[in-house]
Write a structure and sequence with these properties.
By secondary structure, the protein is α/β, with parallel strands linked by helices. The protein contains 11 helices and 14 strands.
């Protein structure tokens, strides 16, 4: 068994396709298929099920996939450790961060910029997807860190609250922009919101149930770009956090109003797997992410949020300051965006 076979298997399962994995790995598809065939022959069991709808792992493939993620992570740590012994306090390795779409819109680019400035030898991978799916990836060691919209403890995960994020009424009408609006008045307007089991919809429904309020929902839409376009077109109003408005709408201007009586808000936490291998690269990325969130809030870029007390009091870790020594030039891969839609 070769490490490249494990890398190929991980990529194929992640993308659900030989062709997509081939493009990502820059390996010809016949060569990719041959390596997986060699792997299955060595294991004497199939690891993938191929069909016209894509590729899914067998039970043996799932078990191998999980172990492969751990093995490759340990290899990266070993390489990073060898470099550290030769070059001092250098930070190297790959770190994958899972972000829901609205959070990604707000912090992905600033995070990449800060990581490139402070830790250029860390290869950052941004994975955008539904928060629930990101937690599943985290538990399977497919990513290293993930943002989640909950403070509740999850078995096998370390959950660190960061902020509380308010939800706003978003509309194309500039009248009364930034003027608070009662939830009971929001209920009388035509609305489009995510459908269940989306966490934002669960939160909205829970608050409305407590207040004995029924919303006038004309369409359930799980797409953030589509929700922004619906609001900008004037077809309906939507309910979103300010982070979701960081990118411009395609069809026009958007205006927001704070929802009050009661205020509707959601917790935002950062999670990591308790059983995954530890690395200084992950610790460094987590520290940069924490400080970035604080910076975006304190300078007014990220509106409608409140810092969790623990994060507000947390100072940057002095143990994670890179101290570089002269070394041979190494190739630094560009950031990797694996983008799926969520809010």
């Amino acid at each position: 068994m070769e490490l490249r076979q494990l890398r190929y298997l991980i990529s194929i399962i992640d993308f659900g396709s030989f062709s997509k994995a081939s493009g990502q790995l820059n390996v010809a598809q016949p060569a990719l298929s041959q390596q997986i065939a060699n792997l299955e022959a060595e294991l004497e069991t199939p690891v993938l099920i191929r069909s016209a709808r894509g590729v899914v792992p067998t039970e043996a493939g799932v078990r191998l996939y999980r172990q492969a993620r751990i093995i490759l992570s340990q290899v990266e740590q070993a390489i990073a450790g060898a470099r550290l012994s030769e070059f001092g306090d250098q930070f190297t390795g790959a770190v994958s961060v899972g972000l829901p779409t609205s959070t990604s819109t707000m912090i992905a680019l600033p995070l990449i910029k800060k990581m490139r400035e402070r830790f250029p030898q860390i290869h950052l991978r941004i994975v955008e997807n539904l928060s629930g799916y990101l937690l599943e990836m985290l538990l399977k060691n497919r990513i290293d860190l993930a943002v989640n919209f909950s403070e509740e403890a999850v078995t096998g995960l370390s959950v660190e609250p960061m902020i509380e994020e308010d939800l706003f009424l978003v509309t194309s009408d500039p009248k009364d922009a930034d003027v608070p609006i009662r939830l009971s008045d929001v209920a009388s307007l035509p609305l489009s919101v995510p459908g269940l089991p989306h966490k934002m919809r669960s939160l909205i429904d829970s608050v409305c149930e407590q207040q004995k309020i029924s919303l006038n929902v004309i369409a359930d839409v799980d797409s953030l770009p589509v929700l922004r376009n619906i609001a900008a077109s004037g077809m309906a109003n939507v309910i979103l956090p300010q982070s979701a408005l960081a990118a411009p709408a395609a069809l026009g201007n958007l205006y927001s109003r704070p929802i009050i009586e009661p205020r509707v808000s959601r917790p935002v936490s950062i999670c990591r797997s308790e059983g995954a291998p530890k690395s200084r690269a992950i610790d460094a990325t987590l520290d940069v992410l924490r400080q970035l969130v604080k910076e975006l809030i304190l300078d007014g870029t990220w509106r409608g949020v409140r810092l969790h007390e623990e994060l507000a009091d947390r100072a940057p870790s002095k143990d994670l300051e890179p101290r570089y020594k002269a070394r041979m030039a190494t190739k630094v891969n560009p950031p990797d965006f694996s983008s799926h839609l969520e809010m």
